């Protein structure tokens, strides 16, 4: 399976009674056992009792086949990141993975979190985001949407002392929970100026959480008889996405290890 195919087959569109977002399969490999989860943002499933995802099935026919998986009791089964301000949660996907060999899916693991390699990147790198902006999906083929951009801050440095970085890309509703990758299919130049022509490079950088906004004072009304000006405050997207560092997923590994009966 090539890199693009892996990116494509590891994401799912999450549909709840209140919202649509993006999630992706992540299997925590601990002590020889596999613990499959769907990773997304806390706010995607906040105050929701259930959600559903549509997963492609392996098929020899031209007509794509899919299966709907429903997750009930989300509040009681999900793991929230232990830090309140980290907008990540993990939803157990054990039942879905029981039929793994019938499904046309892929997943990430801890081995895809390469912290040292990320720290050695340039400040500006080409990136891809995979997900469902505005809920857009190729329903017939059950395929997500790719978007391209660049890093706006270094992906291995804490932005304002938080494990996040910014990307230069338009972020919309539905993109929450989307994985973000560095992908150079035909070569790259490292931070020391060394060129690697024809060498593929692929790194999982993090998870989209939000669109960075700025407060904008907009003129509303002015009365010449009053020495005062009224303003309204609106929020304007400035095409900067807030991405949570991939290493924050390791928090769930520790939670799994601390589970009763582990």
Characterization of this structure:
- The protein has 262 residues and is mainly beta.
- It has a single domain, classed as Thrombin, subunit H, CATH 2.40.10.
- It is built from 5 helices and 15 strands.
- It has helices spanning 3-9, 74-77, 94-97, 115-119, 250-257, and strands spanning 11-16, 20-30, 33-40, 50-57, 65-72, 79-80, 89-92, 126-131, 145-151, 164-168, 179-184, 187-189, 195-197, 201-222, 229-245.
- The strands form 3 sheets. A 7-stranded antiparallel beta sheet has the order 5-4-1-2-3-7-6. Strands 8-9-10-15-14-11 form a 6-stranded antiparallel β-barrel.
- 35% of the residues are buried.
- GO terms for molecular function: serine-type peptidase activity.
- This is Serine protease.
């Amino acid at each position: 399976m090539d890199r693009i195919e892996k990116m494509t087959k590891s994401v799912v569109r999450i549909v709840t009674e209140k919202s649509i977002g993006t999630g992706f399969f992540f299997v925590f490999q601990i002590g020889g056992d596999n613990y499959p989860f769907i990773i997304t943002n806390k706010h995607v499933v906040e105050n929701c009792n259930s959600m559903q995802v549509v997963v492609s099935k392996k098929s020899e026919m031209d007509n794509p086949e899919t299966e709907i998986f429903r997750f009930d009791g989300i509040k009681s089964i999900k793991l929230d990141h232990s830090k309140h301000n980290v907008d990540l949660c993990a939803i157990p996907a054990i039942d879905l993975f029981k039929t793994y060999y019938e499904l046309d899916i892929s997943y990430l693991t801890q081995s895809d979190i390469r912290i040292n390699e990320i720290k050695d990147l340039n400040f500006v790198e080409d990136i891809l985001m995979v997900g469902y902006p505005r809920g857009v999906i190729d329903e017939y083929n059950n395929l997500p949407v790719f978007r391209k951009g660049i890093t706006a801050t270094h992906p291995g440095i804490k932005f304002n002392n938080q494990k996040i970085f910014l990307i230069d890309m338009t972020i919309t509703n539905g993109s929450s929970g989307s994985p973000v990758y560095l992908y150079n299919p035909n070569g790259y130049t490292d931070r020391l100026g060394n060129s690697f022509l024809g060498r593929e490079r692929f790194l999982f950088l993090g998870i989209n959480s939000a669109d960075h906004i700025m407060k904008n004072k907009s003129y509303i009304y002015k009365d010449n008889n009053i020495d005062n000006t009224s303003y309204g405050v609106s929020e304007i997207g400035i095409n900067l996405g807030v991405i949570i560092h991939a290493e924050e997923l390791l928090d769930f590994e520790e939670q799994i290890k601390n589970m009763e009966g582990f």
